[in-house]
Amino acid sequence: MSAVEQYARAHIVTDTADSTEDERQAVPVALRYDPEDDPRQVHVTLPGPHDWAFSRDLLERGLRVPVSSGDVSVWPCGRVQAVMEFHSPDGVAVVQVDTKALIRFLRRTYMAAGTPVSR
Asked: What is the C-alpha to C-alpha distance for residues 42 and 40, in angstroms, rounded to an integer?
């Protein structure tokens, strides 16, 4: 079993009424999975670095319906994007990511773990 690392572009989501979609800041997001470390968890790292570890199942379910566990929430945003919300003592980070990138990452994690792909 080998580790999986994938990079994706995400947009920081703000709640200011005067920000347009083009003004949202694009940030690189690192998605990591190491079945030898913990086959049930994935890691998401935002610039800073801010790293969150949470259930791979939470990420997968969050692509279909809103879910949360502890400091992490994931929910679908339309047909092609998902939102991930991370809470820390420093505040809240809300990022929007293309669903295709997350599905591709999940498929790679299942292949690395030798698990049949469910999607």
From this structure: 7
Three-state SS at 55: strand
- 47: preceding bond cis by omega (within 30 degrees): no
Note the pLDDT tens digit of each residue in 47-98. Answer: 877 899 999 999 999 999 999 999 999 999 998 999 999 998 888 889 999 9
- Asked if 62 contacts 77 with a C-beta cutoff of 8 angstroms, the reply is no
User: How far is it, in rounded angstroms, from Cα 119 to Cα 2?
Assistant: 21
Task: Write the CA distances from 94 to 14, 24, 40, integer angstroms.
Answer: 8, 11, 23
Distances (CA, A) of 106 to 5, 22, 37, 86: 11, 28, 16, 19
Beta bridge partners of 84: 74, 95
Global confidence as pTM: 0.85
Q: What structural domains does the chain harbor?
A: 4-113 (2.30.31.20)
Minimal CA–CA distance to 51: which of 25, 31, 69? 31
C-alpha of 91 from chain center: 17
